[in-house]
Structures are given as structure tokens and as C-alpha cells.
Design brief:
The chain has about 475 residues and is mostly beta strands. It is about 15% helix and about 35% strand. It contains 5 helices and 32 strands. The strands form 8 sheets. Strands 1, 2, 6, 28, 29 and 30 form a 6-stranded mixed beta sheet that branches. It has a 4-stranded antiparallel beta sheet with strand order 3-4-5-7, with no helix packed on it. A 4-stranded antiparallel beta sheet has the order 8-9-10-11. The protein is globular.
Length: about 475
């Protein structure tokens, strides 16, 4: 019997394709800050990109269909006083995004349904608790309003966004800078990669380290670690000889990796993006001009190289679309948003199929937008797997889902400043009271009178300048 030379896989022929120029987002000043985050976050409605901003930190939020040249005066989200380092869309509400910044604050923003018309400088909630810059923000995969942040003060804080409170504070577990944090599939554990070269698996609610591995990668450059759907951990890092490596670990036994592979000697940090439905990991190196992809299976060597998508231009960052935002009719299994120096270019990964029918082997039920738990349930010790949805007829956002979640973000007894504003309360309640409307009218009247006063002052200044010019002559 002849031995199979090539391993069978339905993803062997996955091919990537960059979209046409008119479908890119042009003239964007992508952030130059020296931090190894992806600088881009995507969901089925918007693409968010961290940009260069004078006098603070800002990021753009563009509706997916707003392609072409982006005007220099396009409104931004601009409430931070230092550069923004990381952003993450809420998996349970496509209008809510969190940001972490050099100003030591985490902010949670509510984006209008159709995108920004004016600059947004008032967050829904400001979360203060870090003493140094916040480089990582990541939402809990299955519990509503639970957000994790990690800062350069070497601590991890888990917040209840609904109340604006820091519920869990992991202070003494990391002696050095935390490079990456990843939730497990049901959000019961986190895994972290730290500058001390240790890979840690932590139970955040019990505040204890479940497993750890010293020198998971021996090189000095940053590591990355992500949880896979089966509970194993996938890491990228550098060898002692500065070769880029990837490895697979079993948390129950961290003495030896299940698999280790050397890749190349490039010095860009490898950012892993994982699709739990297909068990494919995409590796995007910062400064590389390629995306490599691997399939993870139960048979040796466990991590199987599939292919490489290459372009001419190096990538400054990368956004990854959740499965529910893909076009199932085109057999699209992944979509990336590649950041160049001055543009964002979507890259579509497709499995070639002759049939026009729905390919259920490519699209098993995937995590939907509904949370399995409320924040209070999770903090009390309950776990819940993601609530799955079928993509057979394409993803259709639920009606009034945003309104319900907005209410959830805002409803808290310890109300934050943002919640006390009449505008925020008007958003939160479907039928505003007469009192609220009166208040809003009062605010608008006040605003109008202020505007009139500013116009009058402008005229006075212009007259005075004319008089000064005549005297000077």
C-alpha cells in the first residue's frame, strides 16, 4: 500500500487575496507608537484603527462600507490624554469598544449606530486603577460587561464595566511587563506571556496560578500566548539564537511542549489570530509582508503548515474579523485588515469550492453575539460556553440588541459621570421622561446662548484688531 505523501486537509488550498484599491481605507496616519499590539480591531459593523494624534491619543472608527480616502477631519474617538496602545470591540455589542492608553486609563466607548458624525471625547465609563500605561485590553468571551486590562505596572485588573468597578486585581503574579493575555474558550482561565520568559495559566477568580512554564521560549524578545478551543495553549516567541518559534503546550503538563517549530530569523513579533471553528492559526509578523497559516490537529506534528500569503508592503498592524462578519457565499474563512503606513487594506482568505451551496464543513456553528452569563454570575463563580449560532443564512444582527446592551453598560447604582449626563440617559431609556426632555431643552438653550456669545466675542475681537492695526500704522 502506498503511503500518503501529502496530508489531507480541506484548508490546504486556502488562498489570500488583497481587495482592489478602491476598497481600501486610504490616507490614514497609523500610530507610530512603539508597542507590539495589533493597532486595529474589527467587527461586522466597524473597523477601528489607532492613529497618530497630537495632544493625546485617538483612534478612528469607520463603518466597513466607508472605503476610499478618509478625510483628514474625519471625527475620531479622542478622550485619552496619552497615545492609545490597544483597542478591543465588545463581542456582545457591536457598538461598544474599549481602549487602553499611556495615560494609565481604560475607557469604554459607545459608538453611534451609523458611525461618528462628531469627534467622541466622552466615554461611557472611565476605568482607573493602573499606575502605569495600559497596553492590553480584552473582553471576556462569554460574560457580559467583563473586561480585562493589563498595564506596565505588571498587574492585571478584571472590571465589571456595568458598575465601573475593579473586581479582581492580580498584583503579585508578574515581576515584569506582561506581553499578552488570552481568555480560555469559556473564560474560566487566562494565559499570560511575560518578559520574565514565563508562560502562566491563571484562574483569575481564585487569584492563583494553575500552571506555569519557565523559559517557554528562551529568546529575549516578546512572546505571545493564546488559548485554543481544546484547552491547549499556542505560543510564539524566539529561540536563544533569535529564531522565531511557535509551540503548542498542554496546561496539565507544561514540562515539555507538544510541538515546537523554528520558523525564520526575522525580528518582528508574531501576532497569532486563531479560528476555533476550523482550528487554523494565522501568524502575522509585525514588519513582515506575509501571513502564514497553520492547522492544529490531534495527529503529529500537531501544528501543520498550510501556506503563506505574501505581499510587497510590510504590515504595521492587523485586524481580524470575527466569523459572523464573513461572507459565507464566497467561502470566505478569514478576513484581515492589514495596516500600512498610510492605509488599511482588507485581505480575504478563501477556500476554493465549485458548489454555490452553504459549506457546512467550513462553517460549523460559531460564537454569536449573545452572552452566556451576566457579569455578576461570572464573578460569583459560574462558567458558560459561548452561545453558538448558525451562519447558514448569513449573520443578521438582532433588533434593538444595541439598546438592550447600552442599558446594561449604563445601568449601575454607582453611576459614573457619563451616566449622569442627560444625553447618556436619553440613549439608555426607550421612552425618556418629560423631565428629561425639559432638561435636554435647557441644555440646548444654554448651548445656543454660549454659541451666540462666542460669535459676539469674535466680532469684538475683529473690531479691536482693526483698531490696533490703524493705530500701528
Amino acid at each position: 500500500m502506498l503511503r500518503r505523501v501529502v496530508r489531507q486537509s480541506k484548508f490546504r488550498h486556502v488562498f489570500g487575496q488583497a481587495v482592489r484599491n478602491d476598497q481600501c481605507y486610504d490616507d490614514i496616519r497609523v500610530s507610530r507608537v512603539t508597542w507590539d499590539s495589533s493597532f486595529c480591531a474589527v467587527n461586522p459593523k466597524f473597523v477601528a484603527i489607532i492613529i497618530e494624534a497630537s495632544g493625546g491619543g485617538a483612534f478612528l472608527v469607520l463603518p466597513l462600507q466607508k472605503t476610499g480616502r478618509i478625510d483628514k477631519v474625519y471625527p475620531t474617538v479622542c478622550g485619552h490624554t496619552g497615545p492609545v496602545l490597544d483597542i478591543d470591540w465588545c463581542p456582545h455589542n457591536d457598538l461598544v469598544i474599549a481602549s487602553g492608553s499611556e495615560d494609565c486609563k481604560v475607557m469604554v466607548w459607545q459608538i453611534p449606530e451609523n458611525g461618528l458624525v462628531d469627534p467622541l471625547s466622552e466615554p461611557v465609563v472611565v476605568l482607573e486603577g493602573h499606575s502605569k500605561r495600559v497596553g492590553i485590553v480584552t473582553w471576556h468571551p462569554t460574560a457580559r460587561n467583563v473586561l480585562l486590562s493589563a498595564g506596565c505596572d505588571n498587574q492585571i485588573i478584571v472590571w465589571n464595566v456595568g458598575t465601573g468597578e475593579a473586581i479582581i486585581n492580580l498584583e503579585d503574579m508578574h515581576p515584569d511587563v506582561i506581553f499578552s493575555v488570552s481568555w480560555s474558550r469559556n473564560g474560566s482561565l487566562i494565559c499570560t506571556a511575560c518578559k520574565d520568559k514565563k508562560l502562566r495559566v491563571i484562574d483569575p477568580r481564585k487569584e492563583r496560578i494553575v500552571a506555569e512554564k519557565d523559559k517557554a521560549h528562551e529568546g529575549a524578545r516578546p512572546m505571545r500566548a493564546i488559548f485554543l478551543a481544546d484547552g491547549n495553549i499556542f505560543t510564539t516567541g524566539f529561540s536563544r539564537m533569535s529564531e522565531r518559534q511557535l509551540a503548542l503546550w498542554r496546561p496539565e503538563n507544561m514540562d515539555e511542549p507538544i510541538s515546537v517549530q523554528e520558523m525564520d530569523t526575522s525580528n518582528g513579533v508574531l501576532l497569532p489570530f486563531y479560528d476555533p471553528d476550523t482550528s487554523v492559526v494565522y501568524l502575522c509578523g509585525k514588519g513582515d509582508s506575509s501571513i502564514r497559516y497553520f492547522e492544529i490537529t490531534d495527529e503529529a506534528p500537531y501544528v501543520h503548515y498550510l501556506n503563506t500569503f505574501s505581499t510587497k508592503e510590510p504590515q504595521r498592524g492587523m485586524g481580524y474579523m470575527p466569523k459572523r462578519g464573513l461572507d459565507v457565499n464566497k467561502c470566505e474563512i478569514a478576513r484581515f485588515y492589514k495596516l500600512h503606513e498610510r492605509k488599511c487594506e482588507p485581505i480575504i482568505m478563501t477556500v476554493p469550492r465549485k458548489s454555490d451551496l452553504f459549506q457546512d464543513d467550513l462553517y460549523p456553528d460559531t460564537a454569536g453575539p449573545d452572552p452566556a452569563l451576566e457579569a455578576e454570575e461570572w464573578f460569583a463563580g459560574k462558567n458558560g460556553d459561548p452561545i453558538l449560532i448558525s451562519l447558514k443564512d448569513g449573520y443578521v444582527p438582532g433588533k434593538n440588541r444595541e439598546l438592550k446592551v447600552v442599558k446594561n453598560v449604563l445601568e449601575s447604582k454607582q453611576a459614573t459621570k457619563a451616566e449622569n449626563s442627560p444625553v447618556a440617559q436619553k440613549q439608555a431609556s426607550p421612552q425618556p421622561s418629560i423631565k428629561m426632555e425639559d432638561k435636554l431643552e435647557e441644555v440646548l438653550r444654554e448651548f445656543k446662548s454660549l454659541r451666540d456669545r462666542v460669535i459676539l466675542q469674535d466680532r469684538r475681537i475683529a473690531k479691536l484688531e482693526e483698531q490696533v492695526a490703524k493705530v500701528a500704522m
